[in-house]
Specification:
globular, EC 2.1.1.171, methyltransferase
């Protein structure tokens, strides 16, 4: 995997083969960040990277100037790799080794962007728990986005606060947002 843009543009990061990961492809990641680049100032947001795996998404945010990044993964090897990589590049990434669902039940910190890349073989019920917990616990800032990466064979359009999806090869990103309050518009 490589960092697409920012301070560390072009840097390649190679995760150990033994990690249970499926990094977001460079093409899909570049397309996603082109969308986000038009909506956010990266140095002014906070990011929560769930099922962070290799840390691929966290590194991209850090390279683009985000200084408030939290990566959550249940695998000790993944957390260790993210810590080592973040330290080597002097990136401001805080890691938390935890089951994502338990973390979402306990945390109270809202974020601007929450990115979730759970295993593609999750059931729709497992996928649905992610936005359910995030919106139930008010973990998304008012102008924020929840982005869930999944296979093109999974449909999340029926879930609460679903906005839209974008597909890139076999990857899909489903976007979720708080409803716009018409009184404040």
């Amino acid at each position: 995997m490589r960092i697409i843009s920012g301070t560390y543009k072009g840097r390649r990061i190679t995760a150990p083969k033994k990690l249970p990961i499926r990094p977001t492809t460079d093409m899909a990641k570049e397309s996603l960040f082109n969308i986000l680049n038009n909506q956010y100032y990266f140095d002014a947001i906070s990011v929560l990277d769930l099922f962070s795996g290799s840390g691929n998404i966290s590194y991209e945010f850090a390279s683009r100037g985000t200084t408030n990044i939290t990566s959550v993964d249940a695998n000790f090897g993944c957390i260790k790799f993210i810590n080592e990589t973040a330290e080597a590049f002097n990136m401001p990434i805080q890691t938390i080794k935890s089951d994502v669902f338990k973390y979402l039940e306990k945390t109270t910190t809202p974020h601007t962007i929450i990115f979730a890349d759970p295993p593609y073989d999750f059931s729709v019920e497992e996928f649905s728990k992610i936005p359910e917990l995030i919106f139930q616990n008010n973990l998304l800032e008012e102008e924020g986005l929840l982005i869930v990466e999944h296979s093109k064979h999974t449909d999340l359009s029926h879930l609460t606060n679903y906005s839209h999806s974008k597909g890139y090869g076999g990857n899909m990103f489903s976007f979720f947002a708080l409803p716009v309050n018409e009184e404040t518009v």
